[in-house]
Design a protein that fits this description.
Arc Repressor Mutant, subunit A, two-stranded antiparallel sheet, mainly alpha, about 45% helix
């Protein structure tokens, strides 16, 4: 999955937080909804402008960021 097809970072949107392209919905918001038990279907019901692929892109974004983290020793 090419994240840049679905996720953008624009200093003029949501204080530069990563958002789903074409929306003002932050990746962090989607991740929070999933973490709190919402299903992809629940999210799409509440935000019909989103697709399952965009929600999966949010998860992929989080996974790629986690792999970049380093623990200081």
């Amino acid at each position: 999955m090419k994240l840049s097809d679905h996720i953008e970072i624009n200093p003029g949107k949501r204080f530069g937080r990563p958002v789903i392209k074409g929306t003002r919905i932050a990746v962090g918001d989607v991740l929070n909804w999933l973490a709190n038990g919402m299903s992809k279907e629940d999210i799409i019901t509440d935000f019909p402008e989103l697709t399952e692929i965009q929600i999966s892109a949010c998860l992929h974004y989080a996974a790629s960021r986690e792999q970049q983290l380093r623990v200081a020793s």
